[in-house]
């Protein structure tokens, strides 16, 4: 069943003004409930604009965005939609507002008017789900970037969100923070069935998805499984995008005449293929 549907979605910034700009030009896309979708694309291709439609931060210029069957343009449904879709943005320092971690996670449910006891149990549960229960009474500024992003995710979970939309959540993090955030997201998808829409420019992160959508100039340029997308090395390069290092290396070696399988995407697969080819690697 699809959880998010875009029908002929367009989004024009500054419509009718001299500087009007069509950032989304007729997108049709359906995202299944419980799926993990990665959106890739060059800077300015419309990824963030598309993402902001999912919880009604932006509304369509034309076309429709449905979330769990509700139209984001229907003002009566907007709060129900926002409760179901948690957003996590790039900058970990812009998202936490309270002086103590647990107050930050409690902020959303408090605004829903939920009873204090229920809030406490939701906060504990959410912090546990992101592996941050030990930091409950910490001040957010003492946390690393990866930990701050996990607290932002916990804030969404405390609202009982069914979908997380993460817009380059690891762009400002070090490799350890990136791994923490990706592992947390993957676990929430695997264990709680939360629908994930994850925008990234790290190809190694995109490998974790069920499906990749590639955007270019406000349109969907390609979609498929990570394997389908990353095996088209030339098409990705022509579109100004990278592929995971292992896929790139395999492609170069194939070009040099090595007969390697065409489906290599991870380091492990590359190592196995090279060993099978007869290259001693250890
Ligand atoms: P991405 O996230 O893929 O980098 P965006 O969705 O942020 O792309 O932007 C798509 C295009 O829309 C870009 O050309 C950008 O300059 C333009 N754009 C984004 N936000 C605004 C805005 N608030 N006003 C005008 N143009 C905008
Ligand atoms: Mg963006």
From TrEMBL:
Coiled coil stretches, renumbered: none
Similarity comment: Belongs to the ABC transporter superfamily.
NCBIfam families the record matches: cbiO (TIGR01166), ECF_ATPase_1 (TIGR04520)
Single GO molecular function: ATPase-coupled transmembrane transporter activity
CDD domains cross-referenced by the UniProt entry: ABC_cobalt_CbiO_domain1
Cellular localisation: Cell membrane
Membrane topology, from the record: Peripheral membrane protein
Transmembrane segments: none
Superkingdom, natural source: Bacteria
GO biological process terms, semicolon-separated: cobalt ion transport
InterPro entries: AAA+_ATPase, ABC_transporter-like_ATP-bd, ABC_transporter-like_CS, ABC_transpr_CbiO/EcfA_su, Co_trans_ATP-bd, ECF_ABC_transporter_ATP-bd, EcfA_1, P-loop_NTPase
UniProt protein name: ABC transporter ATP-binding protein
Pfam families for this protein: ABC_tran (PF00005)
Alphabetized UniProt keyword annotations: ATP-binding, Cell membrane, Membrane, Nucleotide-binding, Translocase, Transport
Species of the source: Selenomonas montiformis
Domain ABC transporter: 4-242
Stored PROSITE patterns: ABC_TRANSPORTER_1 (PS00211), ABC_TRANSPORTER_2 (PS50893)
Function: Probably part of an ABC transporter complex. Responsible for energy coupling to the transport system. Part of an ABC transporter complex. Responsible for energy coupling to the transport system.
Annotated GO CC locations: ATP-binding cassette (ABC) transporter complex
